[in-house]
Every structure is written in structure tokens, then in C-alpha cells.
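Intended use. Records like the one below are meant for learning the mapping from a protein sequence to its folded structure. Do not use them to infer anything beyond what is encoded.
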Amino acid sequence: MVFAEVPEKESATDPLYIALEDTVGRLGLVNNEFQIRKCMELYEQLQQRMGVAIVGPPGSGKSTIRQILKSALTQQGKNIVEYVICPKAMSRSWLLGHIELDTRQWTDGVISTVALEVANQPEDVWSWVVCDGDIDPEWIEALNSVLDDNRLLTLPSGWRVQFGQNVNFIFETHSLEYASPATISRMGIILFSNENHCSQEILDRWVQSKEFDNDTAKSAIPFLNLTLNKCLKWLTVHQADVTTKDCHMSLVRQILSNFEYIAQEITFKNNPQSAEDMVWSAVQLSTMGIIKQSAIDSFYEELEMPLAAGGAAGGVAGGAGVGAEWAEGVLRSARVRACEPALRAAAHAAAHVVIIGPEASAKTLLAEYVLRESNSTIITINCTPNLEPTDIIAELKRKNAVGGAGRGAGRGAGPVLLVRALHRARCDAWGSSPVHSFLLQVIQQHGFWWREEGAPQWQPTGRVRVLCTAEQPPRARLAAALAHVHLPEADDDELLELSRSYLSESVPKNITENDIFNLSRNMISLYKEVTKTFHSKPHYKWNPSHLKQWCENIKWFSPNDLQQVVTALNAMANIIFKNRLVTDEEKSEYITIAQNYFKTDNNIYFIPKLRNDGVYLVAVDYKDWYENTQKLINQCLTDDENCFGESGIEVCAELSVLIPVIALALNGGGASCAGGAGAGRRAAARLLGAVAGARVALLDRGALFHVGFKNVRLSRYLRTLSVALTLHEILLFQSSLLPQKCLTALTSASEGTRTLIVLCEPVVTDDLLACVEAFLSATSIHALPMSIIPSSGPAQQTEQTFINMKNNLGIMICLDKDQDNLTGLLDSYPLLYNNNFLCWLSHWSDETLKDMPALLIQRYIPLLHTV
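Structure written out for the chain above:
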């Protein structure tokens, strides 16, 4: 001991120490000596420093010690006012304020507004400005002058706000890795580690306070307590064997909520179950997917849990299984039914949830199915790279989920924010996602900062619950605030039932159920063999959504009998599988594989025919296809002799591949075509435009599609296109005027005319692909981010125009097979091969190389005679 004469227990006589212990009991918390010491440490740092950082992993008690200290000081008569800000949940200009470039007028941000209010507080008011969330130089460096001894905030407007000794800035974060030494040296720091999670305290508090009417549930509590302690012990030792980091606290909460739900169901349904089975079921529902498959045996052994009690804990069998049924558009297979109780338990506990599963595993369908059982208002958000917190705020306001309107009538009955594809939200240069930070703010602070008129104000969201779907867990801080439900991928039996159902709705009525079943079985076999055989490229990825595409699109082939259905299925298989293969060897191997499942003539060609509801594909032989294609070329040259450029176009095998793909895109979808110069992509687009009477716009300059889409007036009678050409800040290339052909094409689509937008290689950037992704995934005008939403107009006309564009606007994306960022684009934007039909043409085929010289000579000899 440094001071041997000083008794160790002297600190216990400190009035603040006593007040802290009293506060812990008054707040219903479990007494934790470590947290009391951290409260004392925080208090001492606040006396010495203007800024204090509380650093530790999620669930370590950072917010808890702040709340305990505030309550204890208030009990001692101090007047403390807190202002909680989540800096990464808003843009930098919203946070710090900004100057309008045109008017040079200053607009206050959240921090500047709070700073002015705090500076005007009486000296007896102790103000805490709490900045909760990720720290990075973009915003924290602006506060360096505040953290100095002079306590001076300098705003971008030039204003200076002087703080007194009654103001402190508190930063709650999990890491200071991006804070500069200049920032860190100005702050006091309180550290928490991974060992300081509050899981045990949550369990102890729950055991002390929970009461059940069910005798079995009462008798199960000691066993539940023992099992959870074993679970926490295992998680501490096997941190590398879990899919989510720092999951101790969220997992304990989830197990407890699942146990409460099971106890309620047993009481309500009078379904007897042993105490051990109740505990096993709660653990199984909560750990499903969190424990890695390789560690399942170790986990069960530690908990002494019988494998039969939780055979699905590491991954429920995905099969349709016995008892699978269709309900409200959802195939309730074994894997889906196994996840339903965990979702219902979360709803019963008013908890926030993330459903994690692979692409096209029915995550959204499952969420919507369970949510329909309640009276909740569902607010759907599609996560895309250009989604911003302001877009979510706009939907919350449109659905009256802000303020008192966000409070539900009963437990769990409030609005639900259904966030689809959470993993698609963009991250900034520091690895932080504004969307993730905003959702965390809604979950923890129950509101957000918003500015409509004047200074920003805090807007409460009441009891809004957050339910997300994602392909992988979110970042640690958001992941710790969500209960995790893992939905595994479907197995062959479920895929077979899904294909059978989709196919039944697409084939003629004269096709028997037995034929449909056999066709579905062949489809699944081909799908499985293709995915197993081809996986060497980043775009060699297929998922169950392609099975749905496969079935639904055979209607465009108008099959009338079984053989025509087989022909249509084979043609669609070529479009989905064969066309995206890169090498000739791979394509030849695919043809050999496909012949094992679909016995059909590979020399069948398809010509496009326009009908009332779309562009159909009619099967013909090579001679008829050649003559039809040559007529289309002549027709286009008659209308515009320069429509194919200087190189022109000849009938070639590449057109037989491209035309069906673009035809399907023209029915309100998308196509991605990767290849080299001269592959015939633009020519094929021109030919399809001639067939369908569609407007074709070739965009080869940046900043065209999303500006055009944003500025098309929605009132259908404005044919003069009164367009406000305001360039958005995300544009990569400057363009003084939007080409009239692009405006005309977009407006034609909004008025119900078929339109094809061809996005050429120079314009295919990250920002443009994010815009296309948002448009293709949106189901209503309100689902579009405000950065690309069309100009305002009457609500009814707005929605109808959006529907017209979805039904009539086809998008063709051209990629250069040799462009440097091609692999990066394919990795970052799965829409290129999931939503769109991907066609890869590396070079001319041997047949084209053989025929092209004669075709060129045939074309140019008449021209030489005229010279």
C-alpha cells in the first residue's frame, strides 16, 4: 500500500459512494463493485477534464455508469441536464451546421444548437453533452478547441461559443482507433474490457424479479440460471466459435425472453413440458446460428444438453419436411417454422431483431408473415448504398410514427421498422454506417434529431421496434442491441416444392401435376449441378431467387404443350446459367450437363414479338431467325442509316444470345452485358427498340440516369418536360445539360411507353449502380431514396408514374470485360447478376469469325461500285 495508515474502506464513507450504492438499489440494478468504482472514476475525470471518453465493447456498462452517476448526483441536489447526440447518425453538416453556398446564410447544426443552449444555462446547472457512437476525425477534430482548457467552440460560421466550468462533453464509444493523438491527449479516458460485460447482472436481476404463474416455469428457474452460467462460461472460452462478437449480453436477454414466451405458450395452450425441456428450447431458439457448426458438440457438452433436445441449434434442417404448408405466400417448411417462435418471442418482449440468412432464404417473407399476426404498422425500408437516415425519417413521418403517434396501444403493438438487406447500407471511409448508427439511435434513445424550421429539435419515436434482415451480422454495437434469429438456406426438398409451386402458376393448364413435378425435379438437379461445377468467378453465384426467375419468365415464350414448356425452360436455363459463363470450355461443359435434364433441340432460335402486355419470344429455326434479324437491321438502317455507327452490324450468333436477354429486360427488368468492343450490345438494343416500338437511350456520359429519373415531372400532361436540372452532389462527371433523348426516354416510360435505357461503360460507376439498385428494389415511390426520387407532384400521380416506370422501363448495363474495376463492381453490386440477367461475351464465336469476312465483303462491294 502506498499510504499504509489509510484504511481501505474509507472510500465507503464518501457521501457520493453511499449515494451510488443507494441509486443502484433504487434503479433496480444488481450491485456491482466494479461499476461503482467506474462511476467514481467518471466523476473524478469530469472534475478535471472538459471531455471524457468512456471506451469499451457493447454491453460493458458504459451507459449504465453514466446513468447511475447522474441519478446519484441528482439525489445529492445537483441539477444535471443531458443532451445525447449520435454524431454518425447524421451528416456532418447536420451535426456541426453549414453555410449555404448560394446565400452565404448560416444554418445551425445539432452540436451548435446544443452548444448555444448549454452556454446560456445558469451556473448551477451541470450540462453533459453526450456524443454516443463511432469517433472519427471528420467530426471529432471540430471539437478539439472545446476540449482544450479554454473551452471554446469555434463554428464554421466564425461564431465562438464559450463554455463555463459547468459543461462537460462525454464520448461513449467502443474504440478510439481513428481519433488523433491531438484529440486523445485532450480527454480523460475510462476503459472497459470484454470481461466487463453485464450478462451476469442481467441474469441475477431477472432471477430476483421474475415471477411466473406456471409451476413448471417456476421450478425451471434454478436450472435456467445454472444453464445460462454454463453458457456464459463457454462463450468466454470459445470466442472464436461464435458468429457474432460481444454477444454475451444480447444472447442472455434473448434466452430469457424466449423462456418467458415458452412459459406463456405452455400456460395458454395447456401443453405440458418439463422444466429441462423449457430451458433447452429457450437455449436452442437463441443460439441457432450463433454457434458455429464445428463447435456445436463442444457447446452441448458444456451445457450437458442432449442433442435430441436441440438438434436444430446449429442449423435447422432446411427441408420442406412433413407438415410443410403454404400460408399467405410463405412455404412454412421445417426451417421456417423453427424460426417463428424466436420471432414471436421477440415481438412479445418488444425486442429489436435481426434475421440473418443467405441470399433469397425468405427472410423478409418470414418477417412479414409473423408481423401480420400483430396489429403493428409495418414501415418497410429497402437498404441500398445511397440510403440515408433522412430517407428513414421521411418514412417514419409519413407513417405517423414520430412523437406520440409512435406509441402502440398494447405491448409489442407499436410501429415496426422493417429494414430489408441491412448489409447493403453504405459505410464511410472509417467503416461506420450512418444507417446503422441511426437505427441504433432509435433503439437506444427512442428518437432522432430533425430540423424542419429553425434549429434542430429532438423528435421522439415512442415504441417503434426495429426488425432487420441481413446476410451477415451488423457491426458490433448494433448487433449487441438486436436479438439474432438465424434462418438457414433451403435444402433440396424445399427448393423442389418452391419450384413446383412457381412452375404450376406459369405453365398451361393442360400440363399434369406429375409432369410439373418431374420438370421441377430436373430444374433442381440442374441448378445443384451447375452451382457445384461453376464457382471460379465472382459472378458464378446462383440462389433460389433464380429458380423463381426461371419459372416466372417462361410465360414470355407462350408454351402450349409439354414440349414447348421444356423448350422454354431450357432457353431460360441458358439465359440464367450458360450466358454468364466466361470461357467456351465452360459453356460446352454446361451444354453437356443441361442435356442430361432437358432433352431439346439446341438449334432453336427466338425472335421477339410485341404483344399487348410485353415482348414475347417465339421459337423458330435458324433460317427464319436469320431472315427476321436481317429485316430488323434493314428497318433500322432505313429509319437512321447511322444508327449502328461506322462499324455497322451484321447478323451473327451474338445477336441470338443478346436479343432474348434484352427482350426480357424490356418487360420491366434489367440486363447486364459484359464483353468487348464490337460484341453487338448496342446494336441488339436498337433492334429490340424497333421490334417493341420502344424508345432507346444510350447513356455514355456520367450523371445522366439518376439526374434524369429525379427530374422527370410526374404529371403526365407535362409533355414539354419542364425539368429542374439540379445536379446532385454525388455526381462524378459534370454535364451541363441532360441529353434530350434521355429526358424523352424517361418521360416516355413514366407515361406508359416502353423504354430501354442503355448504360454504357463510361457511366457505370458505384453511384449509378446504387441508383439502379434502389430503383429495381423499390416497390413504391416512397421506397426510393430522396436523392433520386422524382420531383414532387400529386401523390396519386406520383405513385402511378412510378408504377408505369417499373412496368415499362428496361435497363441494360454494359460492362467492359477488361475494365479495371469490373471485379470490384461485381462484388459490390450483386444486382448485376441477381436482379439482372447477366450475359458474358468475351469474344466473337468461331462461327461469327468464319462468316464475318464474307458478310463485310457482301456489304461493301455495292458501295465500291457507286464510287
